[in-house]
Specification:
Elements lengths: L3 E6 L4 H16 L3 E6 L7 H5 L6 H9 L3 E5 H6 L3 H6 L4 E2 L8 H6 L3 E4 L1
Parallel strand pairs: 1-2, 1-5, 2-3, 3-4
């Protein structure tokens, strides 16, 4: 059975976020079942990563096209003004816990949770 990991990224620091993306791709290549949930201040990075001039745009596109992004916190993206940006990128809105993604739901599905 594949090891299941979900990476919850709350930190809005671009350097932290990049490492989450790189590690998710590496874990997938190593045979893990891995997902990324974008939460908190990290949702502010969504519009920036979509810009073709952003140096991390290709990495972001690779992660998205690999199916590694489980979704985005609906409440945080609404509060921080990036909901429409996330929707424009066809990212799923996660809101099963009072508008936020539930960590326990992933745990119940057998995921090990890592937070950033």
């Amino acid at each position: 059975m594949k090891k299941k990991i979900v990476l919850f990224v709350f930190n809005g620091d671009p350097m932290c976020f990049i490492h989450v993306l790189l590690n998710a791709l590496d874990m997938k290549e190593q045979g893990f079942e891995v997902l990324i949930v974008i939460e908190g201040a990290a949702v502010k990075l969504i519009p920036e990563l979509a810009k073709t001039g952003n140096p991390q745009n290709k990495l972001w596109d690779k992660v998205k096209s690999s199916g590694l992004v489980a979704g985005v916190c609906k409440a945080c993206s609404q509060k921080l003004g990036t909901l429409k940006d996330a929707q424009a990128q066809n990212l799923k809105m996660l809101d099963d816990m009072s508008g936020h993604p539930s960590i326990s739901a992933y745990m119940q599905e057998g995921y090990e949770v890592m937070t950033f």
